[in-house]
Design brief:
The chain has strands at about 1-10, 20-25, 30-40, 55, 60, 70, 85, 90. By secondary structure, it is mostly beta strands. It has one domain: Beta Barrel (OB fold (Dihydrolipoamide Acetyltransferase, E2P)).
């Protein structure tokens, strides 16, 4: 799935198992999504603030709360389509 949303909430990094940078975005439709960006594989998005626009490519997983976008990075084993995050002119994989 690809799309763009506005950051509405910054969450603490998930440090259990694989480390993930986590934040919530709101799509133009009003739906909110949790973005879980693996920072053990890809660079961490450092200068992220509420109100920032973020584009993404990744795998969508449905949940009653809106869903999660993950696999927003290159697959080190080459078995999965590569995802990405883009903030401004910088792309994170």
């Amino acid at each position: 799935m690809q799309g763009r949303g506005i950051v509405v909430r910054l969450l603490a990094d998930d440090a259990d198992g694989e480390r993930h940078r986590r934040f919530m975005i709101r799509l133009e439709s009003g739906q909110t999504l949790l973005v879980a960006h693996n920072i053990g594989v890809a660079p961490r998005v450092e200068r992220l603030e509420v109100g920032d626009s973020v584009s993404f490519g990744g795998v969508y997983e449905w949940s009653a709360e809106g869903g999660t976008i993950h696999w927003t990075h290159l697959d080190p084993e080459g078995r999965h389509p590569s995802g990405w995050l883009r903030q401004g002119a910088k792309t994170y994989q």
